[in-house]
Predict the structure.
Amino acid sequence: MATKTFIEAIRETLSDEMRRDESVIVLGEDVGKKGGVFLATDGLWDEFGDDRVIDTPLTESQIVGTSIGAAINGLRPVAEIQFADFIFPAMNQLLSEAARMRYRSNNGFGLPMTIRAPYGGGVHGALYHSQSVEAFFTHVPGLKVIIPSTPRDARGLLRTAIRDEDPVLFFEHKKMYRSVRGDVPDGDYSIPFGKAQVTRPGSNLTIVAYGLMAHYALEAADRVADDGISVEVVDVRSLRPLDKETILGSVRKTGKALVVYEDNRFGGYGAEICATIAEEAFDYLDGPVTRVAGPDVPGVPYNHVLEDWFMVNPDKIEAAVRQLAAY
Amino acid sequence: MAVSDRAATKASETPRRQAQRVTSRRDTKRAAPSIGADVGLSDDDLREMYRLVALSRAVDERMWVLNRAGRIPFVISGQGHEGAQVGITWALRKHHDWVAPFYRSIATCLTFGMTPRDILTAQYATAADPSSGGRQMPGHYGDHANNLVSVSSPVATQILHAVGIALAARIRGTDQVAATFMGEGSSNQGDVHEGLNFAAIHKLPFILVVENNGYAISVPSTKELALPDVAVRASGYGIPGVVVDGADVLACYAAARDAVARARAGEGPTLIEAKVTRLTAHSSDDQQTKYRPAEELEAERSRDPVPHFRERLRDAGVLDDEREAAVLADVKAAVDDATAYAESQPNPDPRTATKWVFAEDWPSEAPPVDWAAEIGFYERIERAGGDGSEASGH
């Protein structure tokens, strides 16, 4: 067991998987000599060379589309989209092709491919380097969507993603790359998809969150504990496939649900969690299913005051917890 | 194509590109003893290629008959494209190379290993349809067993799949070539630029075939392309661009054979543009007389690859009355068999409609209620013997 940063866990998992399986390749913008703009692929080009670590042109559709083809012909591509904000040119390839290939061919074709992308705000990235894009993809059957929040989960879930037989979108909150550290077990362990994790047990109220918000939820839970509010935190981790059982189990126990997500509120991923709770745990609820989410503006503004206004943070979560706990 | 357009095209090409241009031999009627010899094809090869051209046409014509008879709801056709598809696909190695086809690729799919039964079960969308098990519209072919990538409806996306297949072939050292086929309308999509650029950078074993039939549904190529030839774009990627007469099966084969040789030698991609004609409307839901003058449609019949290829083979003595009759009898039997087979195949079971979203099932995501079950849908389908046309209430 060693303590690592979030990005170290990702980098080491990539190199481990490339050593283990020569069908694993990495492709994306600046992933080669530079090692990626966040250095997630640093050192891979030195070790694995041009054939397996491919600097692509600035062509996101090509990055995803050629990954599809490479997956058809025996490779396991791990593509990097430099920022999640830049994934939109690849939407057609992701939604019309990657997501539908197995279904539309009645299991004739499967696509073992992983798309990694840094997402999220709070890093002075403004409108186009801060977005949370998960809801665009969780809406589409055929794509698995993973958002880890700890180095341990990042390693275990990225292993599962690379070894999975279907397309996986693996979103990494860029603010966590170097700010989040944690113990990472040695050895070849992986974490199955479709398993949420209760990261803090509690009895009065459940917070459901993922990514950076899973950390902020724990911080808010800490702050209210002294006032006798016992908060249970569920880290979703696997947005699709979703572990409804763990979420519903927690809400049925606490009777109150607060869903937290960084993306703007309207139609965000958390809305689906809220709907699921309302539909399947209605009889257990002692208060309204509540959300804390980003404001409905078209992006995170740049100026630090505006950015702070936008971002969901422990203060906002704490306020919502106190309000819901008092309901 | 106007003479001046050709001249303009050629002026922009290097001498090497010009040398690679394969000119039409449509008007050549010479009784050479072995017309396939100079491109390395035996008379048996030529007869088999003719069978595939004729079979593709016959399957296609059957689809229209079934559509007009109300047996199948939709047809999208490849009539006029068969010569180019058979000639080019013939140059690829079955069960080794890969093809990412498009919705007019009936002849390509038949040449690469699919059968008339495979094509017609897709028309009927039966459970046995190898392309999709009845999930996709007709024309969306695909067959992993024959290295044919599944087709979708957004056009030109498949170029990147073929490029990715070629990339994997290069990395894995498999000696495979990947080809993709599309119309000239599709060739304007951004994915085509991204794919050609990437394939050219890495000198991938890749071939883009553009079947230019002059129309993107109703829009003539003069409103789709600033130049008459898509092939000239190849020079922008530093790769050869070749124009061939799509009615000239042997010219198409020769162009593809050269492109395959280049690809296997590590010399990179080739763009082949086959000038073809669209003998039918865009689809069974289109009426092309609304936008194509009658004289044009009449004139275009002269570009039909089927009689062109037949006459060429007859002139050369490769086909005679007896052999031609045998081919046509074989074709008719195959199409009749495929029709009867497809007619007899059951619909997909709606209880399987949730299968294969992923390789495995995720019961944790199941909705709390299956409303189809609540309304007794599955039982009604079963009582109706699997035919949902009445049971579903529509």
The CA atoms of residues 248 and 287 of chain A lie 15 Å apart.
